[in-house]
Structure to design on (470 residues):
């Protein structure tokens, strides 16, 4: 019988597993929307390391839009949770937690494989208490809002942008000063996208205040954080000696590139390893195309071939070679990478990260929301001279959308546009004018159609093996 993680339990934890800051000591300066695993393993960890290094009242109040799944355990644990870092060497709860020490990369802090993060000071369930969210945004102490709300929330009818507008209106009325809204979602020019969305929604009497007081910097975020499983909780308990029902698992790698355009200060994330730059765009393009696009390719081809995890998909004969070829031809041709960075080296590193079997990152998790992801991950490659592999990825998505793997077992299409997708699964219906993923060039649509027939005839595994460069 072990106890549960809480402030009172911290003194019983191994020293290397304790938070970097004293939970509750700093005032709240940040609000985060989206209490998912990614936020906990990324922005929360960076913010904690920033406060540990440079101080500042940057404790975070986390807003869960509508789900209690994470909120309830977090509240029961004084908002403490741990990050279990999974390197290639650690494969199951049976490993001795002290045998393989992956270490956290954030903040250069040497720590054990599991460490509690003390950055979150409070939480709100927006669906239950929208007024509390509005009050937070009108609080002069709150100067930064970060968001991980997924691609599909960047629409005027979604709940989060409406709450932001209500909160900003209250902030203007309270004369609470400038604020920055930092999108951490996988969208190109995510800050500009958010700004455009909000600019289109602000009421007339808020327009001048908004223009003078709100900035929306862009950022590129990166860390592979699979959904928490029972195994994650087992590992956390083994390492901490207490149970942690809000634990998350993550790879050792972590990166954050941020446009430095903050209206009223920010945590010293640079001290935690984040990079500030004037233009995030080349980083966003690189990540979306050379990492996320390849991730999606593995998710659809792997799911069709009956592979459970991304790392299993990558072990299909020919898969790594085919994706490396895609990176060095179509992806490399589509962009100018950030200075000093090679698309091929970056892509090779992404493939190495995907090969991390310990993560157990499921193909079906990455396959979610394809209509929202593929436009920025794969469609830009259609401008390459011969985008045959981009067409293969789109074909694999289309076959996935048909709802069955190559062995006939059902595949669930988890996508906000699932009904529209299913209503017309023909290549013209999906990719023609008015389709969910419009592909302008009829020759590309013909290529997609050819790939779909080949996938149906041979199956994904055999097709990948046959198409891989010798
Ligand atoms: C993945 C991303 O689920 C997905 O679509 O491609 O969540 C990916 O793991 C992260 O962007 C890595 O930073």
């Amino acid at each position: 019988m072990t106890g549960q993680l809480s402030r009172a339990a911290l003194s019983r934890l191994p020293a290397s597993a304790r938070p970097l800051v004293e939970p509750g000591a700093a005032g709240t300066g940040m609000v985060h929307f989206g209490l998912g695993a990614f936020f906990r393993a990324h922005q929360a960890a960076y913010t904690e390391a920033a406060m540990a290094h440079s101080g500042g009242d940057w404790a975070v109040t986390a807003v869960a839009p509508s789900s209690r799944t994470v909120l309830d355990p977090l509240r029961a644990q004084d908002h403490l949770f741990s990050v279990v870092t999974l390197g290639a060497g650690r494969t199951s709860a049976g490993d001795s937690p002290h045998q393989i020490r992956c270490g956290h990369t954030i903040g250069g802090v040497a720590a054990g494989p599991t460490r509690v993060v003390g950055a979150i000071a409070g939480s709100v369930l927006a669906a239950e208490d929208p007024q509390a969210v509005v009050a937070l945004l009108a609080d002069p102490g709150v100067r930064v809002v970060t968001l991980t709300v997924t691609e599909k929330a960047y629409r005027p009818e979604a709940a989060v942008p409406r709450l932001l507008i209500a909160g900003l209106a209250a902030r203007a009325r309270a004369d609470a000063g400038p604020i920055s809204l930092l999108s951490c979602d996988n969208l190109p020019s995510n800050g500009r996208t958010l700004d455009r969305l909000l600019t289109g929604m602000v009421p007339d009497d808020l327009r001048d205040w908004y223009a003078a007081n709100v900035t929306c910097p862009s950022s590129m975020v990166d860390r592979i954080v699979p959904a928490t499983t029972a195994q994650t909780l087992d590992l956390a308990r083994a390492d901490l000696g207490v149970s942690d029902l809000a634990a998350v698992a993550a790879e050792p790698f972590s990166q954050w590139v941020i446009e430095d355009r903050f209206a009223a200060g920010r945590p010293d994330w640079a001290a935690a390893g984040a990079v500030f730059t004037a233009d995030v765009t080349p980083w966003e393009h690189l990540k979306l195309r050379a990492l996320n696009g390849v991730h999606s390719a593995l998710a659809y081809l792997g799911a069709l071939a009956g592979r459970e995890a991304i790392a299993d998909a990558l072990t299909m004969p020919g898969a790594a070679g085919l994706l490396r070829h895609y990176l060095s031809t179509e992806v490399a041709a589509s962009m100018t990478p950030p200075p000093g960075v090679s698309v091929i080296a970056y892509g090779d590193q992404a493939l190495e990260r995907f090969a991390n079997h310990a993560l157990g990152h499921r193909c079906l998790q990455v396959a979610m929301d394809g209509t929202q992801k593929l436009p920025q991950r794969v469609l830009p490659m259609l401008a390459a001279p011969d985008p045959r592999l981009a067409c293969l990825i789109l074909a694999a998505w289309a076959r996935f959308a048909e709802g069955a793997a190559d062995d006939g077992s059902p595949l669930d299409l988890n996508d906000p546009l699932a009904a529209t997708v299913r209503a017309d699964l023909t290549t013209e219906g999906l990719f023609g004018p008015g389709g969910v993923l419009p592909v302008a060039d009829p020759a590309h649509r013909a290529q997609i159609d050819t790939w779909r027939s080949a996938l149906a005839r041979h199956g994904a595994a055999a097709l990948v093996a046959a198409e891989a460069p010798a």
Summary: Residues 186, 222-224, 292, 295, 365-366, 373 surround D-mannonic acid (CB under 6 Å). The chain has 19 helices and twelve strands. The longest strand covers residues 28-33.
